[in-house]
């Protein structure tokens, strides 16, 4: 590179930065649960078929409002306000249907005439006693919309899918305002769109926090390094431009920022800063050696440019390995991070060359005192390591053993609500729903007949399905159970005058056929299609559970599997547990399955780069050992602190390996350079240690500052990403300055 080409490069960078603001303006923040589902998975394919058959996607967009009355639900003021709220919700745009006790009617037949009466006579308090007795004896209402203690009732509403963020706010805000206006004793609102909106607001808040903290820490690091305010400006501009380009690229590709990709700005800032420090420290070193500005700059780019390119490649590859997973947002995160890293590398190399070409020699070049301290510290460290190499290896073996022991204690576990900040009031709403009602985790199971000539319209099969429902309710604790049997029981009750005692399955096949004809001629025909396919070959049972984690749901799933295994010879139908919650659980397993594949792929690329640098097979061990051991330490910390392996924590291993190897490549690159001067291996190691030690320490501290900003996150998973990668990078730095030189001295033999 020369100054003329550099100036052209700066002009192109400025032009592209200016143009980048156009797509940047349309960048959106997004959190859609469905986008987390593992693509190409057989269970996802079944769930999509299931949704299409039963149109169950409507039920995924639920809104559940718990209303509590201290005096009991049969209070006229309370019922009037409840009815007012349910009617208000029904009038809102994008609401499909609303279920409320105050607007429900009891349908019954008298002498072939269909009749209806209100379930609750709101304006006739004198009938409350009779209404109360009837209501609490009605299983179809008691088990669905009344709390366990009988002091709360719920309104269930369902909204349209694929609403924009503005539409979600336009729907939620008026409902929340109306609830506040009505002045209930206690209210709790849970909704899928509310969870999504809270995630988006937290993402936006955290992104601002990450940027401010990371840029502040970088400014501090730059000032300590260069002792000049002026020299802070360019690196900051390089970092900001790199982030702008990356975010604009995300917008241009039609993607949005989500909980994962919002981590990109602080990560890119730290990596760009690492490149800047490696180049700047080497440039200053050449100036101190007496070279002119031009000669020092050219030599720096010749000696450090390739190593910096390789480090960027290895870090980018660490992120690209996330593409192995079938979770689209994580795959996108890896791809965009890799693009951002390489863009940052290009911007850094061009900008620094032009800046150092036109700017005077940095003042820090003439400050020998600080450099003298660094040399003394590094010389002392090197001598100490050589004298205590047995102690170093002994401690290393002990720490590896302890880490492996605790790593075996890591558990696979996660829950969607675990990521929501603990102080968020919405969590209290979910706890209320779990305590007083069935819960908010959807449960879906599909039953399919083995013989297509038969169907679930047969009374005998209906009785078997009733056994399944009883098992799910009594043995598995699943509430809010709805199936086609609910409609046939309701029809039997209606044809028997609406008496609660007749909320049972029909007694004969003839009655089943008659009730089926009656149902499909009423407004309940749509409801039946919601739970039973037209030919009766498959039905759906839905319910609700508390917000179980992956670990908690696993024994429940096993209990269901064991039940159907025992009944295999009895039941002439198969089963499959499905639903959005099951697919979200599968994210954790999917990512952990790809964990070692990503690490192996990353390690392979690192080995190839190391072999290219020194063309010696022994170097592969020298590279891998100091960079794999920090991953073992990180896993040990996870086990010791009880941090679960889940969607976010499972991706950090491949990322951490790519970041940790940065210093190793710079060390080996400088080692190769010293060998090329004809130095012996011990002397080349010493020269490498003294010349790269400072850059390794500073760049690691800068990377730590970038990832430690994630400790400020309100998301638990993001906090652990920042903590664990920081621990890994710090361990990698210690091992780079202790283990790597010892391994080279022990294993590397200079070729003639």
Could you give a short description of this structure?
Helix content is 65%, strand content 9%. It is built from 26 helices and ten strands. A four-stranded antiparallel β-sheet has the order 2-5-1-6, with helices on both faces. Strands 8-9-7-10 form a four-stranded antiparallel β-sheet, sandwiched between helices.
Characterization of this structure:
By secondary structure, the chain is α+β, with helices and mostly antiparallel strands. The protein folds into four domains: 1-30 and 227-366, Multidrug efflux transporter AcrB transmembrane fold (Up-down Bundle), CATH 1.20.1640; 62-159 and 163-196, Alpha-Beta Plaits, CATH 3.30.70; 368-408 and 594-752, Up-down Bundle (Multidrug efflux transporter AcrB transmembrane fold); 433-582, no CATH class. The protein is 65% helix and 9% strand. It has 26 helices and ten strands. It has helices at 3-24, 42-54, 57-60, 76-90, 128-137, 139-145, 165-182, 192-226, 230-252, 264-288, 293-320, 328-358, 368-387, 389-407, 425-436, 459-474, 484-494, 509-520, 525-529, 550-566, 580-593, 595-614, 618-641, 652-676, 681-708, 716-747, and strands at 62-68, 95-99, 105-110, 113-118, 152-159, 186-191, 441-449, 479-482, 538-545, 573-578. The strands form three sheets. The protein has a four-stranded antiparallel sheet, sandwiched between helices. A four-stranded antiparallel sheet has the order 8-9-7-10, with helices on both faces. Strands 3-4 form a two-stranded antiparallel ribbon. A hairpin with a 2-residue loop joins strand 3 (105-110) and strand 4. Helix 14 crosses helix 23 and helix 25 (681-708) packs antiparallel against helix 26 (716-747). The chain starts with a helix and ends in a 5-residue tail after the last helix. 43% of the residues are buried. The mean pLDDT is 84.
């Amino acid at each position: 590179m020369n100054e003329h080409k550099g100036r052209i490069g700066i002009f192109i960078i400025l032009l592209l930065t200016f143009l980048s603001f156009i797509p940047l303006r349309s960048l959106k923040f997004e959190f859609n649960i469905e986008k987390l589902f593992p693509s190409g998975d057989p269970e996802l394919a079944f769930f999509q078929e299931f949704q299409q058959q039963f149109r169950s996607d409507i039920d995924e967009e639920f809104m559940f409002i718990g209303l509590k009355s201290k005096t009991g639900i049969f209070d006229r003021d309370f019922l009037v306000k409840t009815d007012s709220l349910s009617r208000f919700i029904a009038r809102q745009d994008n609401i499909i249907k609303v279920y409320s006790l105050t607007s429900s009617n009891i349908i019954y037949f008298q002498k072939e005439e269909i009749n209806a009466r209100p379930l609750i006579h709101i304006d006739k308090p004198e009938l409350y006693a009779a209404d109360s007795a009837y209501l609490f004896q009605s299983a179809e209402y008691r088990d669905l919309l009344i709390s366990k203690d009988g002091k709360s009732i719920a309104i269930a509403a369902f909204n349209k899918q694929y609403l924009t963020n503005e539409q979600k706010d336009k729907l939620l805000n008026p409902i929340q305002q109306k609830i506040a206006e009505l002045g209930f004793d206690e209210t709790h609102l849970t909704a899928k769109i509310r969870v999504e909106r809270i995630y988006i607001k937290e993402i936006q808040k955290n992104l601002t926090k990450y940027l401010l903290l990371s840029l502040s820490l970088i400014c501090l690091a730059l000032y300590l390094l260069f002792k000049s305010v002026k020299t802070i400006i360019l690196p900051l501009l390089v970092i900001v431009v790199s982030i702008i380009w990356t975010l604009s690229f995300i917008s241009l590709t039609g993607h949005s920022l989500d909980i994962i990709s919002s981590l990109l700005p602080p990560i890119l800032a730290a990596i760009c800063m690492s490149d800047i420090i490696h180049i700047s420290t080497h440039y200053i070193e050449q100036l101190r050696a007496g070279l002119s500005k031009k000669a020092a700059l050219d030599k720096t780019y010749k000696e450090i440019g390739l190593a910096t390119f390789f480090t960027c490649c290895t870090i980018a590859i660490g992120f690209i390995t996330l593409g192995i997973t079938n979770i689209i947002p994580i795959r996108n995160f890896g791809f965009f991070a890799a693009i951002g890293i390489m863009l940052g590398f290009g911007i850094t190399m061009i900008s620094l060359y032009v800046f150092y070409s036109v700017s005077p020699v940095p003042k820090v070049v003439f400050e020998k005192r600080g450099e003298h301290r660094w040399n003394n510290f590094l010389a002392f460290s090197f001598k100490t390591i050589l004298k205590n190499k047995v102690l170093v290896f002994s401690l290393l073996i002990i720490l590896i053993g302890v880490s492996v022991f605790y790593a075996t204690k890591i558990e696979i576990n996660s829950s969607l609500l675990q990521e929501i900040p603990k102080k968020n009031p919405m969590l209290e709403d979910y706890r209320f729903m779990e305590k007083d009602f069935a819960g908010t985790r959807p449960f879906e199971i599909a039953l399919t007949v083995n013989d297509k000539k038969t169907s679930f319209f047969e009374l005998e099969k209906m009785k078997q399905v009733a056994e399944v429902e009883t098992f799910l309710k009594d043995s598995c604790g699943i509430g809010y159970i709805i199936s086609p049997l609910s409609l046939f029981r309701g029809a039997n009750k209606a044809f028997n005058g609406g008496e609660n005692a007749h909320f049972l399955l029909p007694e004969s096949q003839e009655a089943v056929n008659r009730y089926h004809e009656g149902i499909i001629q009423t407004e309940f025909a749509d409801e039946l299609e919601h739970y039973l396919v037209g030919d009766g070959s498959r039905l759906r049972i839905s319910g609700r559970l508390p917000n179980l984690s992956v670990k908690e749901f696993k024994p429940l799933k096993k209990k269901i599997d064991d039940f159907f295994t025992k009944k295999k010879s009895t039941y002439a139908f198969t089963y499959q547990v499905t639903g959005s919650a099951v697919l979200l659980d599968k994210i954790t397993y999917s990512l952990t399955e790809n964990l070692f594949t990503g690490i192996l792929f990353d390690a392979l690329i690192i080995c190839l780069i190391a072999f290219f640098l020194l063309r010696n097979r022994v170097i592969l061990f020298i590279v891998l050992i100091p960079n794999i051991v920090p991953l073992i330490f990180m896993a040990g910390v996870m086990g010791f602190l009880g941090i679960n392996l889940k969607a976010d924590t499972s991706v950090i291993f491949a990322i951490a390996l790519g970041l940790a190897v940065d210093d190793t490549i710079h060390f080996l690159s400088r080692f190769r350079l010293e060998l090329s001067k004809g130095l012996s291996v011990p002397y080349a190691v010493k020269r490498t240690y003294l010349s790269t030690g400072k850059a390794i320490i500073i760049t690691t501290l800068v990377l730590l500052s970038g990832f430690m900003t994630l400790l400020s996150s309100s998301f638990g998973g993001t906090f652990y990403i920042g903590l664990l990668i920081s621990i890994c990078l710090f361990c990698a730095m210690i091992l780079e300055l202790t283990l790597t030189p010892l391994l080279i001295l022990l294993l590397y033999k200079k070729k003639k």
